[in-house]
Design brief:
The protein is α/β, with parallel strands linked by helices. The protein has three helices and 24 strands. A ten-stranded mixed beta sheet has the order 23-22-19-16-13-10-7-4-1-24, with helices on one face. Strands 2-5-8-11-14-17-20 form a seven-stranded parallel beta sheet, with no helix packed on it. Strands 3-6-9-12-15-18-21 form a seven-stranded parallel beta sheet, with no helix packed on it. Strand 22 and strand 23 form a beta hairpin.
């Protein structure tokens, strides 16, 4: 499904493939030879999404541009099934495995592997050739990788990375319910979407 939003229509290179059950919405550019498979969702939620050439976006992956964090994915990048990317930069030849999550403001340099269920937190930078092990969390700039059981070490770094400010544009003092209410109100702009194809 191809959807226009606020006069922004996706641009898809004629040599690319987008499966009939994928959703591509708004200011999205998909480069030559890229394949977007069944159930994938690529949405410019106020921030552009640019996907380079010869990439693979596998089944049920979600790629979302954010107002202060557009997404730029380089060439020959694989985004695995059920992966989630929001407002991040992914450079050439990187591999984001099944279930990986990359959050707003993160930068993944060239030839990086984020293995199954790996997490790259907000405002984190993975340097060229880095590996996030299966199920581990990368946090900080430059990134340090921790097992999920190292929550206190992760939180010590994560707290300074300002998740609420980066993702929602609010301070940590704003109650969680108010953050969710504001986010829901912003998402009501989908009422103005125009289905093209």
């Amino acid at each position: 499904m191809i959807i226009a939003y606020e006069n922004n229509r996706p641009t898809i290179d004629e040599s690319a493939y987008v499966a009939p059950t994928a959703v591509v919405r708004g200011n999205v550019h998909i480069g030559a030879g890229t394949a977007v498979l069944f159930g994938a969702v690529i949405s410019a939620e106020g921030g552009a999404v640019e996907i380079g050439s010869d990439c693979v976006v596998m089944e049920n992956a979600v790629i979302r541009g954010a107002p202060n964090n557009p997404i730029r994915i380089g060439d020959r990048v694989l985004v695995g099934p059920h992966a989630h990317l929001s407002g991040c930069q992914v450079q050439d030849d990187s591999f984001l495995a099944t279930g990986s999550a990359v959050f707003n403001g993160a930068v993944i340099e060239e030839n990086v592997e984020v293995r199954v269920n790996g997490v790259v937190h907000v405002n984190t930078r993975l340097t060229e050739g880095s590996v996030v092990p299966i199920g581990w969390v990368a946090v900080g700039d430059p990134a340090q990788c921790y097992a999920p059981s190292d929550h206190e070490k992760i939180w010590e770094i994560q707290r300074k990375l300002d998740f609420p400010g980066t993702v929602w544009g609010v301070t940590r003092a704003v109650p969680k319910g108010q953050r969710t209410k504001r986010y829901a109100q912003a998402l009501l702009r989908h009422n103005k979407d125009l289905i093209i194809d």
